[in-house]
Design brief:
seven-stranded mixed beta sheet; binds NADP nicotinamide-adenine-dinucleotide phosphate; single chain; 33% helix; alpha/beta; six-stranded parallel beta sheet; globular
């Protein structure tokens, strides 16, 4: 056979996962001059774009415009999307090896880290990631229920996901009604009785993981006042010394924003967001019926350890009322059948994108990773672009060095035939464009960007009902 990558033997690449990480791999491949590449992208969901659809907050529509870049790549003739096709259920590693020269996993981080404290299993204690997936209409989470009938909610963690959750809980119905939040979530939040939202960080303002635009936005909500205790907004001596020694403009601005909230008088808005620092949850406390009622916290002080400032209890405690608790302490990758996995870090072991054996001693031929399943759940959407470039560089290096072997069935039709046989209701990119049209048309009627279809069966039925829409 001619060399893979030529017109007579195009390089065939499978990508598992259609979020930003996967699409930046596609985009990078399509920019490679003189390479004939055919890319098939698989996703267990019928819809593409991963966290842009299922993670980015509905009131952050601008961020979602990044899908234009992915859409441009997806419309290329040498790209195919196979949605509603699950790796490990419908299609397996051996199938892919028989069809593709290279396989790249871009499955992200699909679960959450737990706190490991008593009471985490109580009714009303949830992973923030599940709440996010629920309000964004993810088919696997749309039937979860979140009891918002109490007065107080506690969000543990001070990253951007925690901010998203706290902000959605604080938004007024009018603010949410113009977004693409799932219909059932819009209705549940309209009836929400939550008035006090606590955002709880275990370290101080200088270590908060959220970014500046996100924390600034919290001070501009239509119907929620924001507050910080002045003593918690002040930097402890170690943090102050750290900031003085390494003045960072963005960090100084973040501290200024936070300090501007300290002592802000309430303006009579109906909800209140309290940002708390230097508190670690030690127990979620329930009532006799096993429902969350409060959260017990240990007060912390910071100490220097190996170049970082870490929290340790100072012996004092505090209990905050909470009728619902969201743990927002980071996402976690999940293992994929047949692929090595680093349980501790929640990633596929890899060297700059080349998958390694579990003992990290050798690369696994033909397998690659990019995005959160490669580096862990850090960074913003754009971080995945250089990350994908690094992985694709390795894939191209292996192609050039002759480390790529031809699969048994290196053709587009064989892959499509197998998918059709295993999952007759697969969703192509053209199908997705029709779903997109249906959702945006539904949105137009109510002045919203889109009204999402949130059940896989409904999406398949809508496609069958209007085959030429
Ligand atoms: P994150 O940024 O890593 O934040 C995790 C938070 O959990 C940190 O405040 C961390 O505190 C805290 N934490 C960890 N373990 C804890 C424990 N045992 N007890 C108490 N607190 C604990 O993660 P994320 O919020 O899930 O976000 C993931 C990534 O997506 C981030 O890169 C984020 O910027 C990005 N994202 C961006 C946007 C946006 O751009 N608008 C929106 C959503 C997500 P320590 O620092 O003390 O460990």
């Amino acid at each position: 056979m001619p060399n893979p990558g030529s017109d007579d033997n195009p390089l065939r690449v499978a990508i598992i996962g259609s979020g930003p990480a996967g699409f930046y791999v596609v985009e990078r491949f399509f920019r490679e001059q003189g390479l004939h590449v055919e890319i098939d992208m698989f996703d267990e969901l019928p819809t593409p774009f991963g966290l842009v659809r299922g993670g980015v907050a509905p009131d952050h529509q601008k961020i979602k415009s990044v899908v234009r870049v992915y859409d441009r790549a997806a419309r290329q003739p040498n790209f195919r999307f196979y949605g509603n096709v699950s790796y490990g259920r419908d299609i397996h590693l051996d199938d892919l090896k028989a069809l593709y020269h290279q396989i790249c996993f871009t499955t992200g981080a699909q679960t959450d880290r737990s706190l490991g404290i008593a009471g985490e299993e109580l009714q009303g204690s949830h992973a923030a990631t599940e709440f996010v997936a629920w309000y964004n209409g993810h088919p696997d989470y749309r039937d979860r229920s979140f009891d918002l009938s109490g007065e107080s909610a506690a969000v543990i963690g001070v990253g951007n996901v925690a901010i998203d959750v706290a902000r959605i809980l604080c938004r007024s119905h009018e603010e949410l009604a113009v977004t693409d939040i799932a219909d059932y979530a819009l209705e549940a939040l309209r009836r929400s009785k939550i008035r006090n939202v606590y955002l709880i960080g275990r370290r101080g303002p200088a270590q908060a993981a959220f970014t500046n635009p996100e924390i600034k936005e919290m001070g501009e909500l239509a119907d929620a006042d924001v507050e910080i205790l002045p003593e918690e907004a002040r930097l402890d001596p170690l943090s102050q010394a750290d900031v003085d020694a390494h003045p960072d403009k963005a960090l100084i601005r973040k501290i200024e924003i936070l300090q501007s909230y300290a002592g802000r008088p309430p303006t009579g808005k109906s909800r209140r967001l309290s940002i708390r620092f230097l508190l670690s949850p030690t127990e979620i406390i329930g009532d006799a019926d096993g429902r969350v009622r409060a959260i017990r916290l240990a007060k912390n002080e910071l100490y220097a350890d190996d170049g970082a400032l870490r929290p340790r209890p100072n012996g004092e405690h505090e209990t905050i009322p909470a009728d619902i608790v969201f743990r927002s302490v980071g996402y976690l990758g999940v293992p994929l059948p047949g692929i090595p996995f680093d349980e501790r870090r929640g990633v596929i072991p890899n060297d700059r994108g080349r998958v390694l054996t579990a003992d990290r001693k050798a690369p696994v031929s033909g397998l690659y990773a990019s995005g959160w399943i490669k580096r862990g759940p850090s960074g913003v959407i754009g971080t995945n672009k250089p990350d994908a470039a690094e992985t694709v560089e390795r894939m191209l290096e292996d192609l050039r060095s002759g480390a790529v072997t031809d699969p048994a069935h290196p053709d587009v039709a064989a892959a499509e035939g197998l998918v059709r046989q295993r999952q007759p209701d697969y969703v192509s990119y053209e199908d997705w464009l029709r779903l997109d049209g249906i959702e945006t048309a539904r949105g137009k009627e109510s002045g919203r960007p889109r009204v999402k279809l949130t059940r896989t069966a409904d999406m398949i039925a809508a496609l069958k009902a209007a085959p030429d829409a």
